[in-house]
Design brief:
This protein is an alpha/beta fold. The protein is built from 15 helices and 23 strands. The N terminus is likely disordered. The structure holds NADP nicotinamide-adenine-dinucleotide phosphate.
Length: 506
């Protein structure tokens, strides 16, 4: 649905906050340092998934706006690339401080458009902001090399240069962090960007841009093109194929990642792809089961299961299967409280939209029809709303069920029993995804063996939360290309240049 009229704000939806104090809720896109409408003046509504109320109507931009934004970003790159690392670090630090100062308002915007409980939204601001802080520091350590020359009177110098304009396309599940983890890194490297946030969660992106503007980020360095789902493909085509774009940095599904990778191939453009996961959560007999169950709650039910590194398959050794399931079931029953994200005590919000709810329900129904046992939950909580799905524990899952292979992206814990370490590895690795994995064991040798043999970019030993700004985040196989965070995150946005200085004796 889109309509021609100036965008509106419906701030009453952000309960708990006095809207008169809110200055980050924007209803225009951000291009070249200006708050702008779409060229065609169309808008689309941003809905609160908890109750479908319209929060704001914002520009429904198309390929024309995307082209303008790319050109603007290229113009800004010509000067931003020549700022000193110290200047870029200073501006990033300002942005970090402002996000910290405005974290409560940012958290309310996330909860309004993404539905997650306020406590989790606050956590996402802390997490997302840690990347801005990290890359403010990293900006000053993007070092080159001097390599000893094999020839007399010659010097080999290697420098890292910013890659240019980066197209940033992000999902709705962590609408702040998925942006800061890319944008702070690329800015530190000296690049500029055009961001296309998800239709479901553009307001957080705009709020972050407002703070970047206040922090002194020069015009054109950060641009945001907002659009409805209908325009995602045409806007994405410009962002991937325009000759002025140097890199496509995407976080989202493997399906869309493959489309974008194909378009990037035409121009041999750099890609950084953070795609879907299918994380195994493996519990061995030596594990501390109480601790494993606590970590399972975090790995499964954070953001109501809508996390790429969320535990997707619980593989439990037969010797401790019954004990673990008993503890896990008690935890789910007592800790998962479904409801509106702004309500005190709520730990699980709605799923992001009806399509996602239908997908989760379809996977569970398919498993039940093939013999899976529902231990808890198993259906839409219609009394709360059509996008609230009960926290679910599913047993007796077998390979013929769709839920065995697919990323659930919802609050469904899928449990399987295994007998040996080899069998656990075989099941864990039998997926095209390779993002996160979790292992619970007290045996040191087993921990090392599993770390070595799991075909995943990240392995958590005795921990269900592994992400931070310091370690490299990313996957292998169909889970992506490249890393975010750490010193590697900034390297994605640089080209290595080798210069030979010769005839030094002349
Ligand atoms: P998605 O459908 O792939 O969408 C991601 C982004 O791409 C959204 O902004 C979307 O816009 C846009 N998009 C869709 N089709 C496009 C096209 N043809 N051209 C250009 N852009 C297009 O993924 P999602 O459902 O939002 O997010 C869930 C997925 O993301 C899961 O698979 C999850 O595992 C993955 N994820 C991965 C990581 C990671 O770090 N590896 C982190 C978070 C999430 P619209 O939303 O407006 O359609």
């Amino acid at each position: 649905m889109n309509i021609i009229r100036a965008g509106l704000l419906h701030r009453h939806c952000l309960f708990n906050m006095d809207f008169r104090q809110m200055h980050l809720l924007k209803n225009q896109a951000f291009i070249n340092g200006e708050w702008v409408c779409a060229q065609n003046k169309l808008v689309f509504p941003v809905l609160n998934p908890a109750d479908d109320k319209v929060i704001a109507e914002i520009p429904d931009m198309d390929q024309c706006d995307a082209k303008i934004a790319v050109d603007v970003a290229l113009e800004a790159f010509k000067t931003w690339r020549d700022t000193t690392a110290k200047e870029r670090s200073y501006i990033l630090r300002n942005w970090f401080e402002l996000c910290k100062k405005n974290s409560e308002e940012l958290a309310h915007i996330i909860t309004a458009e993404a539905g997650k409980p306020l406590a989790e939204s606050r956590g996402e601001i802390l997490y997302g902001n840690s990347f801005i802080e990290w890359f403010a520091d990293t900006a000053r350590h993007i070092n080159g090399e001097v390599i000893p020359s094999p020839w007399p009177n010659k010097q080999i110098i290697v420098t890292r240069q910013p890659i240019g304009v980066v197209s940033v396309i992000t999902p709705w599940n962590f609408p702040f962090a998925m942006i800061t983890r890319k944008v702070a890194a690329l800015m530190a490297a000296g690049c500029t960007c055009v961001i296309k946030p998800s239709e479901d969660t553009p307001l957080t992106a705009l709020a972050a841009a407002k703070l970047a503007e206040e922090a002194g980020v020069p015009k054109g360095v950060i641009n945001i093109v907002t659009c409805s789902r209908k325009n995602a493909a045409p806007v994405g085509k410009v962002l991937c194929e325009d000759t002025n774009v140097g890199c496509i940095s995407f976080t989202g599904s493997t399906y869309v990642g493959q489309i974008l990778y194909g378009m990037a191939a035409k121009g041999i453009k750099r890609v950084a792809l953070e795609l879907g996961g299918n994380a195994p959560f493996i519990v061995f007999p030596s594990a501390d089961l109480e601790h494993a169950a606590d970590q399972a709650m975090l790995a499964k039910f954070r953001n109501n299961g809508q996390a790429c590194i969320g535990a997707n398959r619980f593989l439990i050794h037969e010797d401790v299967y019954d004990d673990f399931i008993k503890i896990f079931k008690e935890r789910i029953a007592s800790k998962c409280v479904l409801g509106h994200g702004t309500k005190e005590g709520v730990t699980c919000g709605p799923l992001i939209n009806l399509a996602q709810t239908k997908k989760v329900a379809g996977l569970v129904d398919d498993a039940i029809s093939k013999g899976a046992k529902v231990e808890l939950g198993g259906k839409v909580a219609k009394d709360i709303g059509d996008k609230f799905y009960e926290s679910t524990l599913l047993l007796n899952v077998t390979p013929d069920m769709k839920i065995y292979q697919e990323e659930v992206f919802g609050p469904v814990a899928v449990c399987l029993k295994f007998k040996t370490e080899e069998e656990a590895l075989q099941i864990a690795n039998s997926t095209k995804s390779g993002l996160a994995s979790y292992v619970f064991t007290k045996e040191l040798g087993q921990a090392f063996r599993m770390s070595g043999k799991l075909e995943f970019g990240m392995v958590g030993i005795n921990d269900g939360i592994i992400s931070a700004a310091e370690p490299p985040f990313g996957g292998i196989k169909e889970s992506g290309i490249g890393r975010e965070g750490s010193k590697h995150g900034v390297e994605e946005y640089t080209d290595i240049k080798y210069t030979l200085f010769s005839a030094l004796d002349k």
